[in-house]
Amino acid sequence: MTDGHGPVPGAERAGYTAARRRPRLGTLALVALLHVLAIYGLARAFAPDFTGSVERQMLEAITVTVTTPPEELPEPEPEPDPGAAGEAGREATPRPVTAPEPPVQIQPPVPVPRASSTGAANTSGARETGEGTGAGGTGSGTGSGQGGGGTGGGAVNKPVHVSGSIDDARDYPVPEGGRSARRGTQVIVRVIVNPDGRASNCTIYRPSPDAEADRITCRLVQERLRFRPATDAAGNPVAAPFYWRQRWF
């Protein structure tokens, strides 16, 4: 190889490898990025305030504000008119009404009473007198009928005391508190005056404070007192009760 003056020294040894290669684009970009990062690191180290303000400006420049469209609300339904009539309902169809047939009750025949004027027996008609038992004007049984012959009815006249007496000073023992302890008290006894005028079945009807004196009174009434007995409507003597009051003065 010559350059017009003669051959170039060493040209034959280099050959085609001596031609220059063009640098690649990616390599240049990588080298530039490394330089920028190196400069940025030095700036952050020595001037942090400056690099902070630059970063904020760059973020504000690339900030994108996204505005969402307003949500569409559904349109409100129109309020019904209070004076408007509602929808017509279904037409009512009446159902047939069938009344149940009432059951037929057959009553038994009512017997017809017999006439009071018929019949041959004395007990079949409404006669004034008859042979059966009834409330006749007179009768022969016991009872209180006007014409009866039995021993019915009660005493009409009460028994009356006719004789005998009881001395409250001599017939009763002296109580523990003296006779003044019994003074002003009384006892009532009940006896049955028999048809012979004597008293029996004595009981204390209303006692006094002295039970011993009450028992003595019952004994003395039955032993000493005599009575005119009670009588019925025919004047017959009958037994009847009698109440004797013994007072201590």
How does this structure look, described?
The chain is of the alpha+beta class. Among the domains are: 23-61; 160-247, TolA/TonB C-terminal domain (2-Layer Sandwich). Helices cover 22% and strands 14% of the residues. The protein has helices at 11-14, 25-46, 48-62, 211-224; strands spanning 160-163, 186-193, 199-206, 226-228, 230-231, 237-238, 240-247. The strands form three sheets. Strands 3-2-7 form a three-stranded antiparallel beta sheet, with helices on one face. Helix 2 crosses helix 3. The longest helix is centred in the first third of the chain and has 22 residues, at 25-46. The radius of gyration is 76 Å and the shape is elongated. The model is unreliable at 13-18 and 116-151 (pLDDT under 50). This is Outer membrane transport energization protein TonB. It is a single-pass membrane protein. Residues 131-155 have a biased composition (Gly residues). Residues 113-127 have a biased composition (Low complexity). Pfam families: TonB_C.
Spatial strand order of the main sheet: 3-2-7
Low-confidence stretches: 13-18, 116-151
- Judging by the overall fold, what is the CATH architecture of the domain at 160-247? 2-Layer Sandwich
* Fraction of residues in helix: 10-25%
Instruction: Evaluate the radius of gyration.
Output: 76 Å
What gap, in angstroms, lies between the N and C termini?
A: 196 Å
Number of helices: 4
Helix-strand topology string: HHHEEEHEEEE
The CATH class of the domain at 160-247 is identified as Alpha Beta
Measured by DSSP, the beta-strand proportion falls in 5-15%
Shape: elongated
Q: Let me know the number of strands.
A: 7
CATH topology of the domain at 160-247: the name is TolA/TonB C-terminal domain
